[in-house]
Amino acid sequence: MRRYRPSLALAAFLYGALTFAANTVAAQDLTASDVMSLREMRTGDMAKLIVHDRPVARLEAAFQDLHGNPVTLDAYRGKVVLLNFWATWCPPCRAEMPSIDHVAGALGGSDFAVIPLSTDRGGVEQADRFLRDIQTRNLATMHDRDGQMARDAGVLGLPVTLILDREGREVARMIGDADWDSPEARALLNRLIALTRQGGAIRA
What residues does 166 pair with on adjacent strands? Predict the structure, then answer.
């Protein structure tokens, strides 16, 4: 029997309490106008995106690739990252995965990357089998084997997607599923990529 998972509304409330403390000590890299411009772009599925006033400290835990090798966010430094926590048993996760694959193909490169981080207890093979079954073309199989990344990120339900700046710090969070290949999502991600293109972090 699966463990009880809080509702997405409760998860959003609890997450807000967690990030309030984190934001009080984070560097103030986002200007008020930057934050406002991103928030004004929250239409369609992006309407429920939480855009932080300040970046949240980078996650330091390691996760694993398909072969069990440790990976950290250091490997993605210099890129805006879409970090998606998901599992094969989660219907909304499964539903949004094709759009995540599509946006990875459309925007992926020197400025942008997607990390689909499976939390499946059945192991990385279970996640990889699902990604192969739906014929993803742009996603590497990654696994949060011990759940440390999810715990450190305050993930209380699935799916949860973090948008990270080029230093690996969280600047926005989506609790619940979304169409990440929608025009609204692409526009917002491209805006963040543009804001961070020089200097490695969101400029003042």
Answer: none
